[in-house]
Each structure stands twice: as C-alpha cells, then as structure tokens.
C-alpha cells in the first residue's frame, strides 16, 4: 500500500524516498544517481555551487542515470545596503579573527557577498532538470512561471503550517515538512521566531497535512524503515532523508564529518548560527560553543557564511572537526557506513516489513 | 496487531495509551477514571499535591473505576544550603516583584521550599496504587525496593538514550521517551545541556528502543491515531499523551488554559524556565517573554515555582493568560474539546483504521 501514494506518482520514482539536497559537496553525482537508480529521488545540493559547476554535475548525473533527479537551490536573502553589508563583513571578520590566527590565514578581502540564484536557476532550466527543490523561502512568481513552462516539478521547504500554506498558495507541487530533528539549515522563512518554528516531525507533519492538499514529504530524524513507516502513518506521502545518506560511501562529505556522525549520539547536536549566519543543526564543537557567546553579533546569512569559509576550509584540510560545520540531524545513532544502494534497499525492506 | 504489545500486557489495560500525569490540578479523578474506564491508563499528576490531597484523589479514583491507574510524582531536586536557598528566594522575589504590584499582591514570606516526596510516596504505597510514574530523575534504590515489594509497576521519563539506559539499569519497568514536542516540564536529568536533550520524538524513540529491552512509551506531539500508529512503527510499545487530554471536558485545567490551546498554533509554544525554574513547554505569553531577559538569574526548581505561585494564582483568578503557565505541546492545532471517553474511542478507531 505505502508506495502507491500521491507523491510517488508525482515523483515518477518507484518509492517516495528523497535524498536531501545537502549543500557543500556532499551530494556527488554518484550519490544522486545511486539513489535515483535504486528507485528513489536523488538530489544535487547546489546551493553553494557556481552555475557552471552545477551544469557539470547535472551532466555527470545524467551520464549515470536515466531516472529522474532533483536539484536544490537556496532562495536568496533580502539585500542589505552596501554600507550595512560592509559593516556586517567587518564585524564577522573581527569575531572570527582569532581562528585565522590559529590556522595562519590572512584576513580575506571580502568586498561583496553575491548570491547567484538567477544564474544557477538558468542552468536548471536549460538542462531541463526534472525536479527543482528549494529552501529559505519562496521563488518569485516569475521564477515559478519559468519552471512551470518547462514542466519542472517544484518541492518547497516548510517548518510551520503557515509556511506550508504559503507554498501551496504559490503553486508549489510538493511540500517538504522539515521537523526540528533535521540536520543542516532550517528552512524557516515566515515564523516570528526561529525558536518557535522548531516543531518536531511528529507534531509538524499531521498539522501540515491537515492544512494543505498537495503531497507532504516528511523530513527530520528519519533514518530507517521505522521512520519511513511512521511518517506515512502521520499522513506524509513520502520522506526526505539527509543524514542517513551523508555517511554513505558515495557521499562527498569529508571523512572526518562522516566519522563524527557515525560515532556521536543523539544528544551531541545543536542549532547554531556560527558558521553561516543562519540557524542550522550540527554536531556540537568548539567553534559553535565559543561563538555562542557572540550570538547577538553574528552577521546574517550569507555574509557569515562567506566570512567563515576560509576557516572551515583550513580546518577540513587539517581534518580538525573543532572548526568544521558538521551538519547532522538527531538520528545520529542510527547512521551507518555503506553504499547508498544498500541503504536504500534496506529502507524499502524494513518499511515493507512494517507495513505488510 | 498493535494492541498486543509488551506494554499492554504490563499495563494490564486494554490499550497501551497512557494519559500523562500533568500536575497542577489538570488530572481530576474524573479524567483519570474516564481514561482507565475507556481501556487506557489514566494518571493522577500528583507532583504538586500534599500527601492527604493525594490520598483523597486516589480514593476518589478508586470509587470511579476498578481498572488500573497510575500516580505521577516529581523526583526531588538536589538540596541547597540554607544560605543559598535564601539567596535564591530573594533573587526570585526581586525578579518578579513588578508582577505582584500589577496584581496588588503582598510580597510572600517564603522561608523554605519543601518537597514532600517521601510523604507523597508513602500514600502511594499505602494505597497500593497499581502504577507509579515519575519524572526529573530516578528514585533511590530504597524507594524502588519499597515499590517493588508492593508489586507496583514503575514508569520513568527519559529524554535521551543515556537516561533510558540508566532507568533500565535501575530496574524501572517501562520507559517514557519524552520527545522535544512534549508540553510541560522536561524530564531531563542527565544531559550536559538542556538544549542538546531536546530530541524530537521521531528521532528519540527508535534510538531508545535500540538501547533498552524494557517497553518504551512514546510521548511528545502525539495527538491522534496518526501519532499513535507512527509511534508504534518507531518501535514504541505504547504512547503517553498529555495536551490531547488537557482540553477534555473532565480535565481540571482552567478554561482560559484550554481555550489558549484550542485557539493557538504549533508555532505558539516555547521552552521556558520562567514559571518554575525548570525548563517546560507552554504557550508563549508576556511573562515568558519578559522573564527571558533575566534567564540567567532565574532561581532553580522548585524555588522559582514557589516564588511565582501567587502570581500564577492571581492571573488564573482574573482569567489573564499573560501571566499563567499555559503548558502545551506542539500539537496544538490537533486539540479538541470533548469528553475523554469520546477522545479515547476516536484514538482507538483511528489507530485501528491505520493499522488494519
């Protein structure tokens, strides 16, 4: 019964199981293709990628699979005045200067922080990617029209019922309900306070399902067949899973990041703005703990993200988890190291056994 | 299939559905008995009750039902020195003085804040209550022996895997896994930080199930048959539900509290220490917002609880929700006003339909 859902027919995949579009190099073409080839929907997390990198990755995916896949982008943030932006950059650099000392890094010359959304989107339209997923807000009506004209299905992220209603009203095809358990960035874009928009998956999914008529994809804390079966019971038409795929062999996440997830517990993650200026869940480390004291002064996304880039890179090169963004959801104890195909087959078998 | 679980046989109730032991007058004998008579396990939330009040309530429940029920108590907090306690009381009274002005209240004379656990427990033992549930920690070995000698089953609250393991090691019969969605007080007693112990139900339940062999009862955000079915898929043997029962006709919660839950959304709750000194989830109001500025100075439980008692009482008498503790979980949009029996029958019907 469970795979005959609205999402499944919309997704054109055998199973309504989506591999989340984690940004930052995790979603290699090999990972995306392995998930899609196994009967799910793989997603290229292209939020931080330059347009031509996105094109190469899409072409690499197409060479590896004939099945549908998705590309995920970040909806651009509100623009700041040049002066405000310069002030934010200066504050961000000051707050993080001590870490540059630590890694012997020159203070970078950050003049302006650009978001390339229009150019990124153009590649998706030109490459006729079957599914476009997004987070941090809602694309403009113009963007949605272009996607619609190309018959590209859209998946938007909601962390509250009001956000889900706004996505449906705008004509989005599927809504990803992101529970508070989820790793990585919060998709929150309407709620008055980030704290009040931290709704657990168990509570969020049925409330969104009751208020929209498009299919709802549950995400946050889902790591195995038990989570998939539970999400379907809550009324979801499918699931999106990030952390579970991050530790797979094909994932491009750094080995030290994978090992942190594989070896830590459910109580080792926290929400932080320290790395990017936008709230995200990751394994608690020294950088997060120290920056928490300056919480009120951390510049907004994407400025803080640009400011910490060299530090994160240097820490990664030295395999030093203390200063890397180790995004992870709360299901860490359920993570495993295996191929994406093996994980996917297990997910389906476990779910089928539970729902038999 | 779903009602033939380990919990059900341990609970001696027809269905493994527990009405949570909400303190503060919510769990009237009528509510507890209605749930137990319907085939679930009702719980008297006796944490704040004087021993003789507990005895009267237990006798009232026994007059209304022949089926098993539970009584819930709070495990006492670490003791402070007399001097430290006096300093805490003074700080608490200062922080809240403006609210006493508002309600024309005299500054109360709080000399010492007592927790009556031993006397409360004695009533439970004497009355041979079938089930003893608790939160905020673990009873002493001596207490557990006394309960065991009387063949009283024990249910302990865990918010992390490590807490669940500690409960099982101590010989507790059933573990209530309290997800971050849950309303009211957090049961956290081991975690290094309260924030890291805010694990969503979807992530918490399967991880606890994998690490203990006693039955696990899921709680947090469960409001209807969808939530029950989902919890069972996650590996839980049953569920505990608080907010859903709080708005029932038989509940002793104040009408203004019920109306707040019935009319607010999933994004209207927050965790606060403002009312009791211990983190709890409730509908966000003015008192919580204003006291958030003084978070670092709020005295610990149970001192702050004693300090705010007169303010909460006055606000309740004036039906002023701005200064009442409006405990609620994140499933608020799913709450309804009906009898506990009607709710219970719906829960069973919905769950049966989903798991047919």
TrEMBL record, chains A, B:
Top-level taxon: Bacteria
InterPro entries: Aldolase_TIM, NMO
Any one Gene Ontology BP term: response to toxic substance
Role: Nitronate monooxygenase that uses molecular oxygen to catalyze the oxidative denitrification of alkyl nitronates. Acts on propionate 3-nitronate (P3N), the presumed physiological substrate. Probably functions in the detoxification of P3N, a metabolic poison produced by plants and fungi as a defense mechanism.
GO molecular function, one term: nitronate monooxygenase activity
Record's catalysed reaction(s): 3 propionate 3-nitronate + 3 O2 + H2O = 3 3-oxopropanoate + 2 nitrate + nitrite + H2O2 + 3 H(+)
PANTHER family: NITRONATE MONOOXYGENASE-RELATED (PTHR42747:SF3)
Cofactor dependence: FMN
Family of the protein in this entry: Belongs to the nitronate monooxygenase family. NMO class I subfamily.
Pfam families: NMO
Keywords: Detoxification, Flavoprotein, FMN, Monooxygenase, Nucleotide-binding, Oxidoreductase
Protein name: Probable nitronate monooxygenase
């Amino acid at each position: 019964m469970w795979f005959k859902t609205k999402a499944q027919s919309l997704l054109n995949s055998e199973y309504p199981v989506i591999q989340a579009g984690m940004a930052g190099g995790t979603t290699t073409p090999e990972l995306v293709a392995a998930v899609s080839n196994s009967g799910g929907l793989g997603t290229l997390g292209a939020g931080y990628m330059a347009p031509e990198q996105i094109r190469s990755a899409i072409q690499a995916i197409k060479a590896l699979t004939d099945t549908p896949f998705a590309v995920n982008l970040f909806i651009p943030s509100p623009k700041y005045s040049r002066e405000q932006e310069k002030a934010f950059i200066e504050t961000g650099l000051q707050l993080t200067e001590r870490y540059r000392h630590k890694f012997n890094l020159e203070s970078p010359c950050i003049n302006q922080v650009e978001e390339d959304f229009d150019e990124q989107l153009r590649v998706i339209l030109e490459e006729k990617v079957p599914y476009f997923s997004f987070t941090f807000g809602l694309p403009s009506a113009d963007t949605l029209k272009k996607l619609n004209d190309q018959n590209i299905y859209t998946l938007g992220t909601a962390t509250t019922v009001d956000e889900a209603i706004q996505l449906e009203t705008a004509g989005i095809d599927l809504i990803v309900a992101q529970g508070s358990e989820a790793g990585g960035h919060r998709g929150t874009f309407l709620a008055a306070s980030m704290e009040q928009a931290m709704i657990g998956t168990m509570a969020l999914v049925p409330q969104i399902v009751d208020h929209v008529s498009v299919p709802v994809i549950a995400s946050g804390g889902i790591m195995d067949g038990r989570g998939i079966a539970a999400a379907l019971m809550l009324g979801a038409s499918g699931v999106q899973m990030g952390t579970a795929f991050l530790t797979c062999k094909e994932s491009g996440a750094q080995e030290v990041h994978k090992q942190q997830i594989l070896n830590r517990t459910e109580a080792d993650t926290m929400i932080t703005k320290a790395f990017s200026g936008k709230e995200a869940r990751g394994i608690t480390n020294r950088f997060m703990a120290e920056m928490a004291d300056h919480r009120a002064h951390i510049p907004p996304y994407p400025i803080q993200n640009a400011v910490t880039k060299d530090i994160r890179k240097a820490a990664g090169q030295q395999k030093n988890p203390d200063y890397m963004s180790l995004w992870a959801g709360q299901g860490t104890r359920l993570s495993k190291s295996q191929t994406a195909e093996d994980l996917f087959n297990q997910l389906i078998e476990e779910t089928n056994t539970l729902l038999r």
